[in-house]
């Protein structure tokens, strides 16, 4: 591949709202599609060309995926519980159903077309739901308790807990059986989707990575490697994995 691989990055779907002192973040009612700077930097550093994807009609997904070399499903808002057979309640934070539907369509098209996919945090949860899995609406719902997975009291690259790698490919890429990761999520995988395999777990048993044997071009992880990469070169490993899968496919 002579040119840089085009990597589609999903992001937040932000609605304009009134701020402090009567100021507005944008015009009242106006929306924005926002891609995290750390994702952009990490994809670029790994050798890809990051392309921000606004939330569009799911029917556009097939044409979008056909133009890309890789897809990155980023973190963000909670996923609509109706997608896994439950109702929203006070444990849910912000819901953006239109983003859910668009990204599910992107993911399914990417898998159909064999496009390499890196699914981060919310992206991993979306993958689980796509295969019929469910989520805990909050980590506090886990029987027996859990670690703090929504760790905002340190820099974004700070390691919050250990993760044990179970998947063979992850062990090869990280060259170890255990790593330390940051953690910025309050929802976690409950029932693993059909056909998916748990590739990593946190110290408390929370699922930290999912793979599917029929879709080896998809890597889903719960932590945020893009923010870890700010201070830790190990954070770049998933992005190098993505570019390597793209080059293998294009070769």
Automatic annotation (TrEMBL):
SUPFAM superfamilies recorded: Class I glutamine amidotransferase-like (SSF52317)
Gene3D superfamilies: 3.40.50.880
Classification via InterPro entries: Class_I_gatase-like, Peptidase_C26, PuuD-like
Keyword NADP: no
This protein's UniProt keywords: Hydrolase
Alphabetized Pfam families for the sequence: Peptidase_C26 (PF07722)
Record GO terms (molecular function): hydrolase activity
The keyword Hydrolase is assigned to this record: yes
Organism superkingdom: Bacteria
PANTHER family referenced in this protein's UniProt entry, alphabetically: GLUTAMINE AMIDOTRANSFERASE PB2B2.05-RELATED (PTHR43235)
Protein's recorded name: Gamma-glutamyl-gamma-aminobutyrate hydrolase family protein
Organism expressing this protein natively: Salinithrix halophila
